[in-house]
């Protein structure tokens, strides 16, 4: 399986960077994550996401949205709010969320 970064989009657009440390409790997490991926894709302003976890346990997910309104729709989704509440109760030791407007974006793909 080849992994590619999310393409560069025409700015401005919005990114939400969610950095976290997980607990050992995995109960219900994979199913909830799959459902969140399913729901967010229905948001017309959703552009994509990238996610990685270091061997030391730091997880970083960057989600891209066309505008702040699209991100607000995602933040206010009732199933997403329930997942966030469960995350604080069960799945995360700590997290930070950074939201920013992207002013410049470009990419490169090697041909060949």
Automatic annotation (TrEMBL):
- InterPro entries for this protein: ABM_dom (IPR007138), Dimeric_a/b-barrel (IPR011008), Jasmonate_Hydroxylase-like (IPR052936)
The gene from which this protein is expressed is: yqjZ
Q: What is this protein called?
A: ABM domain-containing protein
Q: Which organism is it from?
A: Streptomyces nojiriensis
Gene3D superfamilies to which the protein is assigned, alphabetical = 3.30.70.100
Q: Please give the Pfam families that the UniProt record associates with this protein.
A: ABM
Lineage top rank: taxon: Bacteria
Q: Which residues form the ABM domain?
A: 13-85
